[in-house]
């Protein structure tokens, strides 16, 4: 697999009437990687995806997918990508098979491979035995799986997944991820996804954390978490006072917090540190625990807020209310 | 896997664009048709509604004419071609609401983000809507074979055949009108309101419900400006050719052909002139070429506007 970029974005900006949804975003996605956009609701994730998919015109900046400019070569971009939208986009009065057939026609999948490809993707998402059922008899998770299958039909180079597991229960969410992981093994494909679930971002090779229309950091999940300043280690010993003094002497520059029952400190690559530490520490250890920093710690560190803090939640609540209002109008 | 992926893209890309466009039109049409066909209440309802107009309203009005001294007018027969036109008009225009449903339920996105030209999508929708309207027109047309209308004969069959292209053309034009408006609307509750606002005056001024004769000057002008007038005129002209639906002012009403032929023409003219209103009902008010020309022009222009409006949206 070569290491060139399949998505290139430079200083991309999207302004709506009085808000700037995407504010000068630049990044590259490498061929074959799983790249994630992590951020709270309203951070500009979907707007970015919509620009990359040619559904929205960028206000300024440049973006290309599979080597084609998203403004100048729309059709080539559209042929290169598969899409799973945040909101459902199936025709639920048709059967699953009919939805897929429709897709093969509008994406010009050659006649001789249509049938084979359809059964292939149906198999991949485990829906072969429900192919002839109307989509309106499907559960939310099945619909999502069908949409993923549909997005793959025309052998896209990049699969865009906008919040692929939103609104699904944790178990179904895990299923979806099993399918995505499986898919990565079977097809040579680049995946670009957005999410506001931290656990989900962990599946990505690299993550861009986006807030308020800007990318605030971009790296592998491991590196991002290492950047927080190490794993959190909690230590209980026979004599915490003595242990405290030894720790301070041996590891200057580490902040050790004395809690009533234990000692707490951050150490980079904690899993490498602990075995040696236990072997050599002179005070008898009763227990030692290591907690990995989460991506939420990363976000908290950089913005001072949690991803799913009150602000974001009440905002998304408002958005839902507004959407409902729109529907009623 | 890899070799098929290569086969799909670079090589087959040469497949010509026209073929791709037509494939897209076909599959979008197919989807519209499947949805219509599976929706039994919609299928039955849209067939029953015109019958209600024809037999309940038609019969009622016919009785009313008798009360007001109208005599022998066969209003139901007069109205029959009008009802065919009405069904086609309303079904065509309202079929475009599927665009708003697709927008609401997200399916439109799937189509708009595909590598299919917008014009093909618009055309697929138009042909799809026009097909359902055309089919309903045909179902109604079959009523012409009933004995109380034109009866089962070769001439009725010929009329139906001649009416088919007219109905198809009218369906295409009216579906285009619907698509042009639906492309500009975001809420699907607003669509029927806007459509009725536009469609009802067009419908009432088209002569579908009453003959466009003896109208006040202002209304006469409006009916002549209405492109639908010519479509309805053509439909009625073909349908009622050689059918006597009785004029309330015809002094020779009820006389057999033999008797009429014995009356000198001067006497007939004199008789007609002596009647309070001298105009006689004309099934077709305009020459056929004018009707055809206006209908063709209208449908073409509407089709172009619909494609343009649909392609414009982001």
List the uncertain runs of chain B.
1-7
Fraction of residues in H or I helices of chain A? 25-40%
Major sheet attributes of chain B: none
Whole-number tally of structural domains of chain A = 3
Helical residue percent of chain B?
over 70%
Which two chains share the most extensive interface? A-B, 40 and 36 residues
Strand content of chain A: 25-35%
Number of strands of chain A: 14
Specify the oligomeric state: heterodimer
What's the rounded overall pLDDT mean of chain A?
A: 84
Computed structural class of chain B: mainly alpha
Q: Could you list the spans of chain A in which at least 5 consecutive residues all have pLDDT below 50? A: 309-329
List the total number of helices of chain A: 12
How would you portray this structure in words?
The complex is a heterodimer of chains A (329) and B (314). Chain A is an alpha/beta fold. Chain A folds into 3 domains: 221 residues, P-loop containing nucleotide triphosphate hydrolases (Rossmann fold); 63 residues, UreE, C-terminal domain (Alpha-Beta Plaits); 34 residues, no CATH class. Helix content of chain A is 40%, strand content 26%. Chain A is built from 12 helices and 14 strands. In chain A, the strands form 3 sheets. Chain A has a 6-stranded mixed β-sheet with strand order 6-7-8-3-9-10, sandwiched between helices. In chain A, strand 4 and strand 5 form a beta hairpin. The radius of gyration of chain A is 24 Å and the shape is elongated. The C terminus of chain A is likely disordered. Chain B has 314 residues and is mostly helical. Chain B has one domain. Chain B contains 14 helices and no strands. In chain B, helix 4 packs parallel to helix 8, helix 7 runs antiparallel to helix 14 and helix 11 crosses helix 14. The N terminus of chain B is likely disordered. At the A-B interface, helix 2 and helix 3 of A face helix 1, helix 2 and helix 6 of B.
């Amino acid at each position: 697999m070569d290491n060139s970029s399949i998505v290139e974005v430079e200083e991309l900006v999207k302004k709506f009437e009085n808000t700037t949804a995407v504010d000068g975003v630049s990044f590259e996605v490498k061929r074959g990687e799983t790249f994630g956009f992590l951020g709270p609701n309203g951070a500009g994730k979907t707007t970015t995806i919509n620009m990359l998919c040619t559904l929205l015109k960028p206000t300024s900046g440049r973006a290309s997918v599979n080597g084609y400019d998203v403004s100048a070569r729309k059709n080539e971009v559209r042929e290169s990508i598969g899409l799973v939208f945040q909101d459902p986009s199936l025709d639920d009065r048709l059967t699953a098979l009919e939805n897929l057939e429709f897709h093969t026609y509008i994406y010009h999948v050659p006649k001789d491979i249509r049938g084979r490809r359809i059964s292939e993707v149906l198999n991949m998402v485990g829906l072969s035995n429900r192919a002839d059922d109307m989509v309106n008899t499907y559960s939310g998770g099945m619909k999502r799986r069908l949409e993923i299958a549909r997005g793959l039909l025309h052998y896209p180079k990049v699969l865009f997944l906008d919040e692929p597991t939103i609104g699904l229960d944790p178990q179904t969410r895990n299923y979806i991820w099993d399918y995505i992981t499986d898919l990565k093994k079977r097809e040579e494909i680049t995946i670009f996804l957005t999410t506001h679930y931290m656990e989900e971002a962990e599946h990505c090779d690299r993550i861009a954390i986006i807030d308020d229309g800007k990318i605030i950091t971009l790296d592998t999940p491991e590196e991002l978490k290492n950047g927080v300043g190490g794993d959190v280690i909690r230590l209980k010993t026979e004599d915490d006072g003595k242990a405290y003094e030894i720790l301070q002497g041996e590891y200057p520059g580490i902040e050790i917090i004395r809690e009533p029952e234990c000692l707490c400190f951050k150490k980079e690559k904690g899993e490498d540190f602990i075995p040696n530490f236990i072997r050599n520490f002179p005070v008898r250890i009763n227990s030692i625990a290591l907690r990995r920093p989460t991506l939420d710690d990363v976000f908290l560190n950089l913005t001072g807020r949690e991803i799913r803090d009150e602000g974001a939640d009440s905002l998304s609540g408002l958005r839902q209310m507004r959407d409902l209002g729109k529907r009623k109008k | 896997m890899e070799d098929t992926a290569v086969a799909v893209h670079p090589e087959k890309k040469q497949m010509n664009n026209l073929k791709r466009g037509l494939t897209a039109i076909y599959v979008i049409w197919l989807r519209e048709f499947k949805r219509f066909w599976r929706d039994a209440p919609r299928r039955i309802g849209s067939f029953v509604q015109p019958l209600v107009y024809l037999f309940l309203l038609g019969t009622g009005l016919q009785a009313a004419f008798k009360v007001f001294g109208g005599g022998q007018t066969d209003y139901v027969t007069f109205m029959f071609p009008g009802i065919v036109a009405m069904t086609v008009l309303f079904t065509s225009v309202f079929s475009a609401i599927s665009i708003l449903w697709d927008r609401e339920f997200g399916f439109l996105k799937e189509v708009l983000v595909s590598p299919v030209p917008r014009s093909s999508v618009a055309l697929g929708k138009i042909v799809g809507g026009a097909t359902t309207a055309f089919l309903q027109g045909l179902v109604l047309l079959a009523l012409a074979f009933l004995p109380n209308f034109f009866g089962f004969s070769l001439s009725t069959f010929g009329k139906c055949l001649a009416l088919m292209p007219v109905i198809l053309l009218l369906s295409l034009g009216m579906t285009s009108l619907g698509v042009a408006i639906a492309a500009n609307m975001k809420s699907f509750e607003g669509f029927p309101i806007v459509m009725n606002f536009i469609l009802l005056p067009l419908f009432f001024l088209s002569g579908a419900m009453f003959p466009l004769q003896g109208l006040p000057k202002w209304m006469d002008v409006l009916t002549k400006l209405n492109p639908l007038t010519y479509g309805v005129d053509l439909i009625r002209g073909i349908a009622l050719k050689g059918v006597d639906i009785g004029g309330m002012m015809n002094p020779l009403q009820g006389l057999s052909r033999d008797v009429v032929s014995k009356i000198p023409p001067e006497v007939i003219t004199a008789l007609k002139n002596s009647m309070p209103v001298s105009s006689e009902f004309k099934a077709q008010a305009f020459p056929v070429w004018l009707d055809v020309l206006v209908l063709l022009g209208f449908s073409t222009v509407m089709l172009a506007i619909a494609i343009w409006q649909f392609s414009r949206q982001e």
